[in-house]
Amino acid sequence: MTKQLFIIIFFFFLIGCKKEESPLEGTKNNNGNVDYKSVEAQVTISEGSIVENKYTNFEALDSSNPNKLLKEFDFWLDKKEDQYFSVKGINSSAIQREAFNEATIYFGFGFENEKLEYKTQTYSWFDTAGSNSKGTIEQVKCSSYTDTLIKCKFYFGTAEPANGMPTMSWVIVTIKDRALVNVEDDLGASFLGYIDTHKDFLDKRLSNLKKALKVAVKDPKIGLKDEQLRGFSIEELDLLTDGLASQVKAGK
Fold first, then answer.
1. What is the per-residue pLDDT across 77-90, written as a single tens digit (0 to 9) for each?
2. Strands 115-121 and 170-176: what pairing?
3. Which 3 state secondary structure label does DSSP give 204?
4. I want to staple 109 with a disulfide (CB 3.0 to 4.6 A). Which of 43, 118, 174, 232 is the partner?
5. CB–CB of 135/160 below 8 Å?
6. Quick one: CA torsion of 57, 180, 217, 42, rounded to 10 degrees?
7. With the C-alpha atoms ordered 20, 25, 30, 32, is the resulting torsion angle positive or negative?
8. Where do the DSSP E strands lie in 23-169?
């Protein structure tokens, strides 16, 4: 009897170790087990790259209304009066631990006290050129606003960098296929991210994440070798892209 009990305990120990080795297959948090396979993430992936080196003369453009971005990509999914736009940087470590609120790189903006305010951090472990800043937005100019490409430049009226970091004057936000986001600043830093939602809308948040990763792995200038994607195993990326990562690796 003692021997059988020992075998049972050892069996459950092995199962526990296996779960630790595959953190995306159902780690437990306050929301329960996350079943990534069941999350719907249909996205039409267009040709070209989100990081095309094409110069845009934003200065020659008229100002754009930021309310369109706020409404279409609202952090609160229209559940609150004050809409907010939030981009979280793709971070393999945080995603593996389902710690989605531990954002180390991000950009967000919205109205507060009738002023358009932003907060951002582009300084990161893979790109030390950026900064951490918050302040007001003077104007927004968009060179493209279609289903396949949204590209807008945010000019900062005031900027309060943290811990003696350099002052930031603007960021350019590019959204490809309404899924993958690239944020670049005037200091030379940039990061890839996804449209975030409040933690209460976990399914929407995970859907946005999966869509962004699908577009990223298919991007000819990003693919599987990008610095922000290297922390994932091919199995984890497959889980988060519904098998698309393996197809890309196979050259399909």
1. 999 989 999 999 99
2. unpaired
3. helix
4. 118
5. yes
6. -130
7. negative
8. 28-29, 32-33, 84-89, 106-112, 115-121, 132-145, 149-156, 160-161
The rounded distance, in Å, linking the Cα atoms of 119 and 52 is 25
CB 34 within 8 A of CB 103: no
Q: What are phi and psi of 92, to 5 degrees?
A: -60, -40
- DSSP, residue by residue, 20-47: HH-GGGT-EETTEE--GGGS----PPPS
Dihedral sign for Cα 176, 177, 178, 179, please: negative
- For 175, the enclosing helix (H) or strand (E) is strand 170-176
Q: With pLDDT > 90 as the criterion, what percentage of the chain qualifies?
A: 73
Buried-exposed string 125-138: b where 16+ CB fall within 10 A, e elsewhere: eebeebbbbbbebe
Closest by Cα among 132, 186, 187, 136 to 164: 132
Predicted confidence (pLDDT) per residue in 143-182, tens digit: 999 999 999 999 999 999 988 889 999 999 999 999 999 9
The C-alpha atoms of residue 158 and residue 138 are separated, in whole angstroms, by: 8
Structure tokens at 59: 């200065």
* Spatial distance between the Cα atoms of 226 and 240, rounded to a whole number of angstroms: 16
Structural tokens at position 157? 């009226």
**Which two three-digit tokens encode residue 108?**
């967000």
